[in-house]
């Protein structure tokens, strides 16, 4: 069933409610479809500016040190391959926003034939040279391929696409009939998100541009010809330093903030802890 939503998010003329302002970006919600979003200021330079090397190595809503999380990312790829094995056989996968490709490496280990796209050239080059993966330096909105895939994998990527309409059309064209899309996304209606309010870590424009609930995510995929075939909470571990870096970025200054965060970073920062994924979910969609 196709739920009628604003036909194009970028050109939606419906009335919007201003929910909050974060880092100077007004976050709004469409009264008609519930689409929650902000608008980026410079589309042409967006990917280069947001996904610079700083994103992967200096926090800034990204990673304090991406390379230290390679084992966690690899395990995440294995976990997703296990989930996917309940729905399909391994085939050709396109991973969107691959970074250096550690998640892809987990899928490869599980039998998937792997391809990826990643806007940051340092990351994509590492994946090509060191991990021997087929990763192109490219954003989804500019990606062109004659090749068709059985799966498009998007782990914490859907909220960062700057042209959602175009991206979903591209994904649909890239997939074989009955092709699947795995989406890992943060739930804006989760209890954690509601309690944290404007300090919820996922409100971090401009690297995140769109926020979804179960309802709005399914709504947009339905609109572009997909049906939901499964969903759940991923098992997830997070590096403590990565968590502290998110707190540093999301919270306003409080007394001794830097000292307290540095203290924890020195003592326990290198460890990984199980993240209670109450606000993080996976969704599997099938192209109809
Ligand atoms: Zn709308």
Account of the 3D structure:
The protein is α/β, with parallel strands linked by helices and 288 residues long. The chain has a single domain, classed as Rossmann fold (3-Layer(aba) Sandwich). Helices cover 32% and strands 25% of the residues. The protein is built from ten helices and 13 strands. The strands form three sheets. It has a seven-stranded mixed sheet, with helices on both faces. The protein has a four-stranded antiparallel sheet with strand order 1-2-3-9, with no helix packed on it. Helix 3 crosses helix 4 and helix 9 runs antiparallel to helix 10. The longest helix has 15 residues. It is globular. The termini are close together. The site of zinc ion (ZN) has 8 residues, from loops.
Question: Span from first to last CA?
Answer: 11 Å
Can you count the helices? Answer: 10
DSSP helix fraction: 25-40%
Strand content: 25-35%
Small-molecule binders: zinc ion
Number of strands: 13
Spatial shape: globular
Could you spell the SSE succession in H and E letters? EEEHHHEHEHEEHEHEHEEHHEE
Determine the structural class based on helices, strands and strand pairing: alpha/beta
Strand order of the largest sheet: 6-5-4-7-8-13-10
